[in-house]
Amino acid sequence: MGKILFNDVRKTDNYTKNISMLFSDYELFRNKHFSELCKLHLNKHYKESSLFLTHSATGALEMIALLLDIKPGDEIIMPSFTYVSTANAFVSLGATPVFVDINQETLNIDDTLIELAITPKTKAVVAMHYAGLSNNLNVIKSICIKNNLYLIEDAAMAYGNKDDLKPLGTIGDFGVISFDITKHISAIQGGLLIINNKTFAHRASNIYHIGTNREDFNSKKTAHYEWVDLGLKFQMNELSAATLYDDLLNEEKIISHRKTLSEIYYNLLSHLEEQGKLKLINKPFLKDNIHEFFLILNTTEERDALAQYLLQCNIEAYFHYLPLHGSPMGKKYKFVGSGLCTKVSECLIRLPLHNNLTLSDIHSVCKSVDHYFINNA
Ligand SMILES: Cc1ncc(COP(=O)(O)O)c(C=O)c1O
Questions:
Q1: Any residues with CB less than 8 A from the CB of 40 and at least 6 apart, and which?
Q2: Which position among 208, 336, 348, 375 has the lowest Cβ density within 10 Å, counted as fewest Cβ atoms?
Q3: Against a cut of 0.90, is the pTM above it?
């Protein structure tokens, strides 16, 4: 049996076809052919929002920090159990992240702790949708409105998911999506900034166009094309857009395949949860948990031993975020909570989940997980 990879690139000839097409005609590069097609497609999902295709979700978060005029002393509330980019975007402009613990069921920020973290310096709350599973945005949004704070959705892992009827990323003032190679819909490297608070849309366009009024000039709203604001290069590379476009056209198939694989994982492993050997995601969340399939073991030793055993069986399985408040860089910042995120992080393992996995691969992974527990009963 070949190695069962944790993640893989989708098998299709369309990526290379799209890229060859670009190289056949410079005009396609100049006109940002695939970026425009991606935007047309994305506009159908995010009808009310202003969209900016970026080189990464990291870049989209950095753009938000610029738009919010983040200054030293500003405080940004976020879960500790998140990726470094969530914090770096704000820290790089001098802000102080305030880390909050997670909710045991969803592994998202514990919204009952958010108000304890608010001070007069708080400027925004970041709700990160772990594994694509929605935060309770009604609750978080009302806390933000009551306290006059901006709400940022870090929906890096959540493309394709909704909170009731609205796509994740469209409920806060801002949303970001990642189209990295590690994500289910990929540009190899890419991201999306979703601006829902209209007051920021015009300035976002200037910053996105490297501080110029290019959009106003192109739409003849101004006679001069000039430098009007600060700007950085956040735009998506056209080669990435050529890749992303094919994934977007196939998004329903891709997401549905992942949901099927997740359900099979769940059904084949639920007896281990019944025996108290591990914890699975709550069954009703399965339909939304599109980014990854994880197990939470009882101890770190068991988690590490299982990962080691799976590797011996030629199966890749990995841990995930290390809570930021416990990291060398994050230790100097405030943490609100009891440390549940540390326990979860130390016991969590993610199983392979990608487009090229077959049902028989999932059966092999589950058989190996079973064997591990039989051998270590
Ligand atoms: C929660 C979260 N936010 C932001 C990012 C950054 O995404 P990107 O790699 O597209 O910059 C990641 C990456 O995995 C992430 O997990």
A1: none
A2: 375
A3: yes
